[in-house]
Amino acid sequence: MLTLQRLYNKKTRMRDKSLDIVKGIACILMIFAHSHSLGRTIDNDFTYFFWYLGFFAPIIFFASIGAALIYQLKKRSLYSLIIFNLLLFLISFANLGRESIEYLDITKNNLIGSLALSTIFTLIYWEINGLFVFIILLILDRFLNTINLTPTILHGILFALIPWSGITTLGKYLHKNKKNTLFVFVIGILITFYYLIIKREYITTQFLTSSFLGVSLLIYSFCLLVAPMIGKVPILSLLLTFLGKNSLLFYFLHLFILFTITFKLQAVLMWIFILVSSIIFMLILKSLNHYTLERISSLLWFWVVLVSAIFVPLLFKFPQQFQFYFFSILTIIFALNYKNLFKLKIIGS
Fold first, then answer.
1. What is the mean pLDDT of residues 42-66?
2. What is the pLDDT of residue 185?
3. Under a CB-based contact definition with an 8 Å cutoff, are residues 130 and 172 in contact?
4. Those residues with Cβ within 8 angstroms of residue 141's Cβ, 6 or more apart along the chain or in another chain
5. pLDDT tier for residue 326 given thresholds of 50, 70 and 90
6. Burial of 130 (0-12, 13-18, 19+ CB in 10 A)
7. Residue 208 carries which DSSP code?
8. Contact, 294 vs 211, CB < 8 A?
9. Which long-range contacts (CB under 8 A, 24 or more apart) does 291-299 make?
10. What b/e string do you get for 221-242 counting C-beta neighbours within 10 Å, with b at 16 or more?
11. Which of 138, 157, 267, 288 could form a disulfide with 41 if both were Cys (CB 3.0 to 4.6 A apart)?
């Protein structure tokens, strides 16, 4: 009995359920943002507010990934995490290709690629104080924003690394120093109050401006504070935890559904439709994958073929519709099987 209790405590330390809940909240916000931006909703003044909240999904997600690294480093090597994120960076180009973007252009809004690069960057300077790194990166980002850089690969890498690494580092810092979460929440309230009440400015949704950062601090720290309370509500906790544990699959799949459908619904109905259909397809795909590709996804050749397939359009010209489905399948297969990457001897655990 004592052994089982120790085993349970060890597993608890390896994963924080509240982080899954926070990532689940980010998944819900993705639905708000993407269903509107892709023109699938009939909106009104009420639903526009939720569309606005959706812009903060990347902040919540990036910060929670930074916090999750604390637990991942307890069960996986630094080397294996860096290799995984390099592969995720390559897969991100397939996601761009699916969206009819020049898929080797890093200067586009490649959030998955930014997530991979910022995670690597955070791992490299892991031992440095997170709050200090966040402030330095924030100052550097402000400086770069004063320079009119021509959209180049270098500019794209700077966008991917500097601001988003700061957010990832902030998530790590807050999780290591949970007593400071309430303090950051208050800071977020003050910044938001300053822009809304004193300066009477509309808080822009442009990423990482001062007003956007203030609201981001407010929303992310609020999510951290309410996550333990949500964990006590069985159905809501189960839903958000499932989404949080499968957030990468949800990201690719809900976008696939939104790109595929051609009809519009009232915003609330569309949100429910996307959420329910995504969960149903996730359950079906996970079940099918368990009896098929999962059995070979721990083999090296499987990943060589999968990653190599990203560059097929460089050699052959395909119709746009074929390219859409081709890249969608690649990203979904990756999301279903990426955990088996760590079983490869070349990567290690």
1. 86
2. 84
3. yes
4. 162, 163, 166, 208
5. confident
6. buried
7. T
8. no
9. 293/333, 293/336, 293/337, 294/336, 294/337, 294/340, 297/337, 297/340, 298/340, 298/343, 298/344, 299/344
10. bbbbeebeebbeeeeebebbbb
11. 267
* pLDDT above 80 (res 292): yes
42 bridge partner residues: 266
Q: Is 253 exposed, middle or buried (0-12, 13-18, 19+ CB in 10 A)?
A: buried
Closest to 131 measured CA to CA, from 175, 193, 161, 90: 175
State the average pLDDT over residues 202-229.
72
- DSSP collapsed to 3 states, 291-338: HCHHHCCCCHHHHHHHHHHHHHHHCCCCCHHHHHHHHHHHHHHHHHHH
Comparison of pLDDT for 85 and 146, the residue scoring more: 85
Q: Is 260 helix (H, G, I), strand (E, B) or coil?
A: helix
160 has pLDDT over 70: no
Query: Is the pLDDT confidence value at 152 over 70?
Result: no
| pTM for this prediction | 0.84
Please state the rounded mean pLDDT for residues 274-286. Answer: 97
Q: Is 202 exposed, middle or buried (0-12, 13-18, 19+ CB in 10 A)?
A: exposed
* Contact by Cβ (8 Å): 247, 26: yes
Note whether 328 and 322 are within 8 A (CB). Answer: no
What is the CB-side half-sphere exposure of residue 206 using CA atoms within 13 A? Answer: 6
Distance CA 279, CA 130 (A): 35
| C-beta of residue 87 within 8 angstroms of C-beta of residue 303 | yes
